[in-house]
Amino acid sequence: EVVLTQSPGTLSLSPGERATLSCRASERIKNNYVAWYQQKPGQAPRLLIFGGSNRATGIPERFSGSWSGTDFTLTISSLEPEDFAVYYCQEYGASSRTFGQGTKVDIK
Amino acid sequence: QVQLVQSGAEVKTPGSSVKVSCTSYGGTFVAYTVSWVRQAPGQGLEWMGGIKPLYGTPTYAHKFQDRVTITADESSDTAYMELSRLTSEDTAVYYCAREWAGDFDHWGQGTLVTVSS
What is the Cα–Cα distance from A38 to B17, expressed in whole angstroms? Predict the structure, then answer.
């Protein structure tokens, strides 16, 4: 079973700064089937990125996904106040589904 | 617009079972997989399993396969997740989510299940 390790655990940044979140997979993921989600307190997660780099419907352009080998990255180019939240990666390259443990982006 | 509406909060005693429902509005229910994901207080997301109503055969995460049963009723566009032999560690918010291609593009509002004696 694939293990996803997200880093850092917490990222403290100011509005307007760039956020770079990492998700490392324990093995190659078929077709780079990795998604990213944003979750705010008391809410269900929201899909941001699917297929490693495709923005979901309605997601602003400041959110982007990329990868190199087994390392996946979510980048927020310029943080808006509403972007402070917890972010999860998830893989779906096999029959099971696995989430990373999450990265919290909080206000510095 | 797809909307997933879940049943209300539950309080259960240790050793009992809970059954949570998830009704789909505005989409083609049978064509997509519906998965269940749980989140313990202050913790991350954990996939439990899913079912594609068109085929009816569920897939379960190893961790839960001896305790969880996921079913679907096409006539009411509703999926169900039943978890048995509950312990305090099963206290969590349980979400249903629609799978698009393995990613989850629509989510229910969540159902809090509290296990307490």
Answer: 31
